[in-house]
Amino acid sequence: MAGLLTGLIEKRTLRRWRHAASRVDDIGPSDLKALRNRARALGRHVDQVLHVAEGRLALPLAGQAAIRRPMHSDWAWRPELWSGPVKPTGYASVKTKTAIGREAKVFHDCALNELSIRQLRNTRAKDIAAYGVHFDVFRFDGSFLSLVVDVPSEGVEDLSRRHLIRLEIRVETEKPLEIFGRFNVHHGPNVEQLVREFSGSTGEYAIEFDLSATQMLEARVERAWLDLIFEGPEMNEIILRDVTLSRRPRAEI
Questions:
Q1: Range of the domain at 49
Q2: Are residue 84 and residue 205 in the same domain, yes or no?
Q3: What is the reported pTM?
Q4: Does residue 213 share a domain with residue 98?
Q5: What CATH number is given to the structural domain containing 200?
Q6: pLDDT (tens digit, 0 to 9) for every residue of the chain, 253 residues total?
Q7: How many Cβ atoms are within 10 Å of 71's Cβ, its own excluded?
Q8: 9 lies in the same domain as 79
Q9: CB 107 within 8 A of CB 146
């Protein structure tokens, strides 16, 4: 019943505004002013609804983008920064250890601090993820810039030395730079670190971390995190259009 009444009210409202539009040329100044004020008040709400709706319905749809999974993968994940909106969406003059969203932090060793970061909406047909991350780096007297992302508990559940961890990124840079991925596993009092370099800085790239090369104590794994490291990022623009992580067990021989 509530839905039926709402539909009837909306139809009457639309009919009333259609009638007002048809006779707006003949309305006197005082009535026209009152009509304009009502139209402006209504227009603000309509514009807000359209803005949010068009943003959420723009392709790719937030939270519904597919993740490429290697065969036999038992877990795959796209971090929050690339799958849904965060608040605040960005920062200027970013200090080290600044959090963006619930999962990610920015680290650097730069004293000049002419660095900004913001989340952006991917809207191009070739984009897979709904959101991206944009870095603007100006003067930079440090040696590295790093985006650290916490891996959720599902990613470390039953994690073993048989697993291969695959990291895929889609990145754009204003000029070439070195990009590294580092996978960190905290087990007991120790931390295992695996580092790989991406083969380029503009395009789609993937690297893999083989946990068999570590001394990880499987029964004592507590948490894991991912570092995306940019070396010498001064006077550069970096856009991470997508980041995904997946794992699969190595085949038994």
A1: 2-57
A2: yes
A3: 0.76
A4: yes
A5: 2.60.120
A6: 667 777 777 888 888 888 888 888 888 888 888 888 888 988 888 877 776 676 666 666 665 667 888 889 999 999 999 988 888 889 999 999 999 999 999 999 988 778 999 999 888 878 888 899 999 999 888 888 999 999 999 999 999 999 999 999 999 999 999 999 999 999 999 999 999 999 999 999 999 999 999 999 999 999 999 999 999 899 999 999 999 999 999 876 5
A7: 5
A8: no
A9: yes
